[in-house]
Request: fold
Amino acid sequence: MAPSLKKSLLLLALLLTAGALRAQVHFETCPTNVLHQKALRTGLPVFIDLYADWCRPCQMMEREVFSQKEVGRFMEERFVAARYNVNNPIGYKLMERYGSGSVPLYLVFSPEGELLGRITGASSAEELMANLQRILNRAKAAQKGSDSRR
Reply:
């Protein structure tokens, strides 16, 4: 094989690998009021990932969970997703208000801004999606119960 062809194939392989490592989940990084407006407009609940650059479990989640296409589809269909570094102002304020000091911390809010649930710590993709689905199911059941009392 010619050296230039080998270099081209190597470059292509590196590009494909880099693309596969990128997150499949599209995370917003906008201010929370913009995120809230998007949630109201779409009718989807909000998923917030609070992380830190130095956090190994956060890095593992980015690399092994949020990079999966299945997780990306799950999140896109069910949430407006955002992520904030707890060392920056928005993430710090959210952690101060809703956290226990441990990252990663995942928060789920209704489109109206009511906290529906929280998940602390790293997990497998399957476990994360199951926990998120439980939070959504619990919120739907509570909504049906309040609707029937009206």
The radius of gyration is 18 Å. The chain has a mean pLDDT of 88. The first strand starts at residue 46 and ends at 51.
